[in-house]
Amino acid sequence: MSSAAAHSGDPYAGHGSQSGFGYSQNQPPPYMQPPDTPSRSSYYPSKTAATEQTSSGFYDRGMSTSRRNPKNWSRKCWIILAIVSIIVIVIVIVVAVVVTRENRYPNYSKLQYNLVDTFSGTNFFDNFDYFTGYDPAAGFVHYVDGPGSVALNLTYATATSAILRVDLSDTDTTTGRKSVRVTSKNTYNDGLFIFDVKHSPYGCSTWPALWLTDPSNWPTNGEIDVAEATNLAPDGNQVTLHTTKDCKMNVKRKEIGHSMSTNCLNSTDGDSGCGVQGSKATFGEEFNNNGGGIYAMELRDAGIRVWFFDRDNVPNDITTSPSNSTSVTPDPSTWPQALADFPSTDCDIGSHFRNQSIIANIDLCGDWAGQPKYYTEQSKCPGTCVDYVSNQPGSAYQNAYWEFGAFRVYQAS
């Protein structure tokens, strides 16, 4: 190395170049391309290299061309595809069935009704038998027979009204208080029932009901509670069905009441059945202050519907005259929406409700009214239900009576 090169300050000097810098004019200086830095060509593979890498899977983010071809799929792939397809089909079918079921609704077409029975006037109670057995609802009550009821003035009828009440005269009620339960002599498998109710019973410990059932085959032949409440009836009327299995109401319904439960099987949820709650004005003190109203119940294969009409809104085709008039024929197809609707969508009405008798009674305490949830918490009644019946004077039951105008039963021709 020459001294000039040694002292030039250029570490690359003296490497034998024409310009004295030690490299050819046709080549870049070595420091422009460090030995361990990849060349430009290493960042951009040749077309051949790229093709090779792609075919090996390095640059292809999907399946290779051969895998996209169904002819090259393995048996396992076909099985997976078949399973997925079946699952999708099942889901589509289930969704379709659910949507269809939720939108199904029976055909409540117009029926031509004819009057078949009228309970009215002084002979009102001639249409009924008096129940005198042990109360099946475990009430703290003594049901009185016909002659006893007349003697105690618990049932009586005039030309315009029929009264059924709890006894007010008994001073010894330590084993229960006297009351009345009557059952119609005629039974029905279908029909339109019109009940003119002028006064509904209410008061602590009371459990009044206007209902239909087959007393000799309950609950197999069903129960329809048209008007029912307990104690002070703070929430109004509850319309309820009680059945054996396979009668549910979690389906499309057209009603103005509030559904309380949808499984009508009597043995579920404390024998509560499937109930629909009405407004406060449909039973009790407010109902009575408004002059009562009309309850109508239609029992047919398409379903069971219950309407409540206050005195100012009774349809023109419902007569409230006590006379046995056949000049007016009711037509529910023209009425507004029912208070409670129990369609046959998921319940065979015809098989669940047969041989129905009309029943009116006033129970005391028992399985419903006597429960603390309803006696104490809901109605704020004092002490316990049994203690109340045992110790309160008859004056505590001044409002514990039914007053009916007329009952009419129509059946389709």
Automatic annotation (TrEMBL):
EC number of this enzyme: 3.2.1.6
Pfam families: GH16_XgeA
PROSITE patterns membership: GH16_2
TM segment ranges: 77-99
One example GO MF annotation: endo-1,3(4)-beta-glucanase activity
InterPro entries: Beta-glucanase-like, ConA-like_dom_sf, Glycosyl_Hydrlase_16
Enzyme class (EC, first level): hydrolase
Domain of life: Eukaryota
Gene3D superfamilies (UniProt xref): 2.60.120.200
Pro residues bias spans: 27-37
GO biological process terms held by the UniProt record: glucan catabolic process
Domain GH16: 106-377
Compositionally biased intervals (Polar residues): 39-67
Keywords: Glycosidase, Hydrolase, Membrane, Transmembrane, Transmembrane helix
Chain intervals for the UniProt region annotation (Disordered): 1-70
PANTHER family documented for this protein: GLYCOSYL HYDROLASE-RELATED, PUTATIVE (AFU_ORTHOLOGUE AFUA_5G02280)-RELATED
Family statement: Belongs to the glycosyl hydrolase 16 family.
Identification of the protein by name: endo-1,3(4)-beta-glucanase
Organism of this sequence: Exophiala oligosperma
